[in-house]
Amino acid sequence: MTEAEIQLLIQLDIVAWESYLPYLSARIQQEIIAGTFTGLTQEQILEQILQQTLTASQIETLISTALNNYNRSVNRLMLEDAPEDQLLIYIGPQDTKTRTVCSQMAAAGPLTESEVISNFGSGVLNYGGGYNCRHAWEMKPSRVTYAESIYGPNKARELLQDGI
Question: Which residue of 54, 67, 82, 107 could cross-link 156, Cys pair, CB 3.0 to 4.6 Å?
């Protein structure tokens, strides 16, 4: 991966944050104006800002999503230099929080990039199952066998059968 490719990935994350920051700024301004107008103390205004904008868990989710998307984007760039028959596996937790599409991708087992795209679309290579996705596509080394407990295709199939 070149420095230019890394800079592009960083720029993508910056664009995502810059699209959210105007909203956040406007909400903070609204709360300051409303708090001042209604006679709230500085502490009460700060509490209103925290309640009306983002909670700590929401901020954590935003950061986690951005980092996971970044990781998937780096893997996708690395895939450009890999042979066409390079296998990918979808790894991550398989539990009741797992989206159906994530279970389907994990249950599919090792796939080539073209198989991933034809079965699930190209967006999953960068964004996984969507917002707050905890999974990633990883390149499977040709001489190494992953333990099924790591990427969980059997657990994913069980979750799909149970309708979770």
Answer: 107
Backbone angles phi, psi at 98, to 5 degrees: -70, 130
The neighbour count for residue 134, using CB atoms within 10 Å, is 17
- The owner of tokens 């964004």 is 127
Domain assignments of the chain as residue spans, ordered by start: 84-164
pLDDT tens digits, 56-97: 777 777 778 878 888 888 888 888 888 989 999 999 998 899
Largest CA distance in the chain: 68
- Kindly list the distances between the CA atom of residue 87 and the CA atoms of 111, 130, 141, 152, 153, in Å, as whole numbers in the listed order: 5, 22, 8, 16, 15
CA angle (8, 79, 72) in 5-degree steps: 60
Q: Name the amino acid, one letter, at 113.
A: E
Helix runs in the chain, H state only: 3-38, 42-52, 56-80, 100-107, 113-120, 124-127, 148-151, 153-161
Buried b (16+ CB within 10 A) or exposed e, 51-69: eebbeeeeeeebeebeebb
Predicted confidence (pLDDT) per residue in 104-145, tens digit: 999 999 999 999 999 999 889 988 998 889 999 998 765 445
Q: Which of 86, 145, 77 is nearest to 112 (CA)?
A: 86
Reported pTM: 0.61
